[in-house]
Amino acid sequence: MEKTKKNMELSHINVSEYLVRFLKEKDIHTVFELQGGMITFLLDALYRSGDFNIVNIHHEQAAAFAADAFARVSGKPGVALATSGPGATNLITGIGSCYFDSVPAIFITGQVNINEQKGNKSTRQLGFQETDIVDITKPITKKTYAIKSAKEFPKALEEAYSTSVSGRPGPVLIDIPMNVQLEEIYEKDFACASSSILLDSKKDAIAKFFNEFKNVLSKSQRPLVLVGRGVRAAGATDKFIKFIAKYNLPVVYSLLGIDNIPFGNPNRIGLIGTYGNRWANYALGNCDLLLVLGSRLDIRQTGADVKSFSQNKKIFRVDCDEAELHIRFSEYLVLQTDVLPFIEYALTQDVKFNSKSLGKWIDKISKKKQQMPDTKELQGIKGINPNIFIHQLSQSSKLAKVFIADVGNNQMWTAQSIELKEGQLFLTSGGMGSMGYSLPAAIGASIALKNKPVVLISGDGGFQTNIQELQTVVRNKLPIKMIVLNNHCLGMIRQFQDSYLNSRYIGTVWGYDTPDFVAVAKAYGIDAVSIEKTGEIKKALEWLWSNPEKPMLLNVNIDIHTNVYPKLKFGNPITKMEPELDKNEN
Question: Which pTM does this prediction carry?
């Protein structure tokens, strides 16, 4: 009788304990959170297990961004927890960033007890901080779950994990009422282990698609590959490098595709898009064959002139997201599959093409680069040239595994000029484009790397947005090298106001200000220095890396009127960038 009783006691655990068990089985041992009343049981269970790094953040948005970056670096879903009401709604921007940038993440929110929920009642709210976060976040998640009983939790959790990592990765949200967190789950309801939902490799479709591509490539005079984040998200970066080497194809990349090809790779051309490298946009506009691997073709990448972009070229697209394959453009061949099986198949094939024509094509692109390299776009500016600075920062930061850019001018200067070595990653908020991403993302990235150094590049506006997380850096002893490109304004919008609003600087210069970032950093116990002259850069970068194990902040003062160039002119083809070098440039 005693033995039977003991077996019954071992056959069930509560919902909070089941979450702990599940995350352990998935080898996830880090969660980001800001404590709140409706998640106390969940966090207590994680703490009592003794196997989790519970990273307390000072704002839920920052917790979501940290989870985002943790996922991009570790390859596992990031996990963030928040309480009901304002805690849950504060996650939204970070959830959206994961969704738009294809980052797997599991967001868990606490909810008021079921008996405090309004249900179908017409009242706005019944329980304190009751908020329907499940319906609010449906448009920016792959799936949401409103848990109503312990019995449904195991299946929902397993499905949420699989949904997050399968196909085009993205975030899921699970909302758990506080009373359910303590309800028991019996062994018969435990979820069976299941593999992630994988897209069919579609071997026949891949072969047919590749044969079409091969036939066009064999006759192409100006081939080009556009690579996006989908390649890294699929774990295909290493094989992608082999693919472009095998076929000797020139490569341009989107903002989120930068880290698929090292700076020194001979096939690398540069960044495309609204603020892309001038010569890369020239290549994109003038190629006669374009292979797009895991990248969107939105307006910021192609320009608004669809007809001009697609004329005189054959476009081939490979993407796991069917919806992305059927928007804006119709005159191309598409293959809906993960990019990895396509690249693996291509590596087994051979194509004969005109190497002489390819050489002429690459030479022409090179001449465009020599005509106006990124370091000469801002000639005549006062003080430090941000493009030159980013090159110098890259060269001095060999110990950094990850570079993180915020949003705004700093993001574009970094993307235009960063020199990534093999194995170095580049993170930024692409689709959401949220200022304040860089500091919490740097926290998540460094923790994913077991507290290794990372480099953060931010503007003064973005850095202030989540500046409270300096305390998280200090408390966790994270060796984050922080660069604030400080132009004392919201520079990207200020540039827009110069171009279109007769320099009426509402909210960018007028009514905007910055603190003394050196003083702020020192108040948190972080060493910091400030520079404003080109001649100070070398010494400052030596100081920045004088102790790789410490967080440090370098404030780089930049003239307020320093713009980002080149810039795509609205309504024009991707090759028409300002300032124009040649009225007939194409």
Answer: 0.94
